[in-house]
Specification:
HTH luxR-type domain-containing protein, WH-like_DNA-bd_sf, 12 helices, DNA binding, single chain, 3 domains, TrmB-like, Arc Repressor Mutant, subunit A, alpha+beta, two-stranded antiparallel sheet, 10 strands, 8-stranded mixed sheet, Endonuclease, Chain A, elongated, about 15% strand
């Protein structure tokens, strides 16, 4: 059985087998006995493959086959990566056929509503994975309708969100992040600098069109190499980020939780921290969302599991 199926040429195999059989033979003898005038070139090719070391000493058969197999595996992986572009082309053609418009590799969407609508449309068509880098867990005054996104999460879509640890002091940021984390949109916080980024199914990315102007819309990018790189950037930051469940409660949240555990009635608990009953109940509702709890009893259990009580 030959080694051609592992990527060796006929001359490479002849010289390797010759030097393997006769460990004392040199290239001069090999040239004469194999009738191989360009033996130096073939030997250089074998060295490049890792099959010769020193002047002309063949590596062991086990090492040779191992090296050749892994080389073929790498070549196959590269070819599969190249072939994967065909699926990107298919996705583009399918989208053009569906929408009746040209799908460009880079497209400027000029306003936030267009960006949101485009991302929602892509996710509705293929709700597999959504990752998001953004400054805040929630934007003040945001009127975004979250119901469609919740339905996608309930249907099994994988979603992860990274936001800046520098906004945790802002009211509601941590509790908002925890509430979505409990619903399946996993949240982490990062202290690294970044720009806004969203990647859908590792095939389409959205980046801020102008870093100096948050109102300039976004660039939708379909170029496979760029999207893959941006997805890898997100993965690296995600691995280094802090779990949202590891975040400590704010001082107010901790006081409300302690009061809830110590007192039998809302009135007594509210008096103990000097707030109205209405305000206390609003705080309790926020805590339940943070803990993903459907009842106060469940909220208490989850708080104990996390060491907050």
């Amino acid at each position: 059985m030959g080694l051609a199926h592992l990527g060796m040429t006929a001359d490479q195999e002849r010289l390797y087998r010759y030097l393997l059989r006769d460990t004392t033979a040199g290239l001069d003898r090999a040239r004469a006995e194999l009738d191989m005038p360009d033996v130096e070139r073939v030997a250089a090719e074998l060295r490049a493959l890792g099959l010769l070391h020193g002047t002309c000493t063949a590596v062991t058969p086990a090492n040779a086959v191992d090296l050749l197999v892994w080389r073929r595996v790498d070549e196959t992986r590269r070819r599969l990566t190249e072939l994967s572009v065909a699926w990107d082309v298919l996705a583009e053609l399918t989208e053009e056929h569906r929408s009746g418009r040209s799908v460009r590799l880079v497209e400027h969407l000029t306003d936030s509503s267009s960006v949101t609508a485009r991302m929602q449309s892509l996710l509705e068509q293929d709700p597999r994975e959504f990752v998001h880098l953004k400054r805040r867990a929630c934007e003040p005054g945001n009127s975004y309708d979250a119901a469609p996104f919740q339905r996608l999460l309930a249907g099994g879509m994988r979603s992860r969100t990274l936001f800046s640890a520098h906004v945790l002091h802002e009211p509601g940021q941590a509790s908002y992040a925890r509430s979505w984390h409990a619903r399946g949109d996993l949240h982490r916080v990062t202290r690294e600098p970044f720009r806004h980024l969203a990647v859908i199914n590792r095939t389409v990315a959205f980046v801020q069109a102008d870093p100096a102007d948050p109102w300039a819309g976004a660039l939708q990018i379909r170029q496979p190499g760029v999207v893959a790189m941006l997805a890898e950037v997100f993965e690296g930051m995600w691995d280094r980020a802090q779990e949202v469940e590891d975040l400590s409660l704010s001082a107010v949240e901790q006081r409300v939780l302690d009061a809830l555990a110590r007192h039998d009635t809302d009135e007594a608990a509210a008096r103990s921290i000097n707030v109205s009953v209405r305000k206390f109940r609003a705080h309790v509702a926020d805590l339940m969302r943070t803990l993903g709890a459907n009842s106060r009893f469940q909220a208490a259990l989850r708080a104990k599991e996390r060491g907050w009580l």
